[in-house]
Amino acid sequence: ETAEKAGFDHFMLKEIYEQPKAYRNTMMGRITDDGKSVVLKEIGMTAEQIRGIRKVHIVACGTAFHAGLVGKSVIENLARIPVETDVASEYRYRSPIITPDTLVIVVSQSGETADTLAALREAKRCGARVLAITNVVGSSVAREADDVMITQAGPEIAVASTKAYTSQLIAFYLLGLFLADTIGTRDAAYVSEVVAAMGELPEQVERILEHAEVLKQVAESLSKHNNLFFIGRGVDFAVAQEGSLKLKEISYIHSEAYAAGELKHGTLALIEEGIPVISVITQEDLYEKTLSNIKEVKARGAHVLALVNEGQEEEVGKSVDELFAIPKTLPLLAPALSVVPLQLIAYFASLARGNDVDKPRNLAKSVTVE
Ligand code: AGP
Q1: Whose CA is nearest to atom 8 of ligand 1?
Q2: Other CB atoms closer than 10 Å to residue 89's CB: what's the count?
Q3: What is the average pLDDT across 308-316?
Q4: Which atom of ligand 1 lies at the shortest distance from residue 116's CA?
Q5: Ligand 1 neighbourhood includes 108 CB (under 6 angstroms)
Q6: Coil/strand/helix, residue 119
Q7: SS3 for 250-274, per residue?
Q8: Nearest protein CA to atom 2 of ligand 1, as residue
Q9: Residue 134 CA: which ligand 1 atom is closest?
Q10: Which residues are catalytic?
Q11: Which residue, 11, 39, 70, 322, is most buried by CB atoms nearer than 10 A?
Q12: Confidence (pTM)
């Protein structure tokens, strides 16, 4: 086992550091030689079938579901197809309206999650086309889906998913661009701009990882608390939900993620002196709005850590206690960067609390029973 950890103390840390490679491998072979567009040979749908998709359902559990939340924004933004997201354990019990012109995307690292597999079967029974995004070739989900995108993250051992999640984001970016290109909702110049920005992500993640020590200190002080909050808007909210899940599953600190604009509708009552609030603020068009929410919690005594884009440290720094800057990318791609510091915070908080980082209590790597 020590050899498999390749010098890292835990599988989770190793897998966090493997993300630049996982990004590159997941993009490899899916970008044209000129670096300008996306080819997905694994998608067997004709252009006509793709143009006939009227809606998309994304169904998954846990962290894979959180990737699906980003996937919804990506597909709606790029391909302009309406997308619904469901946790798989709810999907088939709500009588979803699945029609032959629905594309159902199931997302699963293991490809063996019982509820996700059941959702896939329900979708097929209703005549929908099913696309699986999974990390395991030959898994049940991969075998039963019509089309399969394999995330090339490599084996993920730690119960807390890290590189599988970010590889799922890469898969959604590729898929969104492919759909947009086929449907004609985005022109070639735009697609090539996004592809170029995606090419920079691995090196940008490496730059974040160089600052792990700063995040260790942040995590050590957070580890002394029993409650904290994550806030964000848009895809920042999706990332906040993933950061919150990561933290609670391995540190056992109670945390909640809220859409920043929802605070006033109840949660603000829980904000008291010294409570930590982690705010993800990377989206330019939502910047002012989130900043005003940060000021609301600050005014009530919260201790705020903000994840900001490089270049905004000074402005945001006036309203928060601590900040961590992530390299600048296109707004839609920011989750592939902003989640990395949150993974490291969760890791170091778990470590500081003396927990079993790779095998948190009560949890299994793959949930094969309902
Ligand atoms: C991730 O950190 C969790 N342990 C868990 O939510 C996981 O993502 C979920 O069980 C889904 O697993 P899957 O991707 O293998 O289907």
Answers
A1: 63
A2: 18
A3: 94
A4: 16
A5: yes
A6: helix
A7: HHCCEEEEEEHHHHHHCHHHHCCCC
A8: 160
A9: 14
A10: 365
A11: 70
A12: 0.97
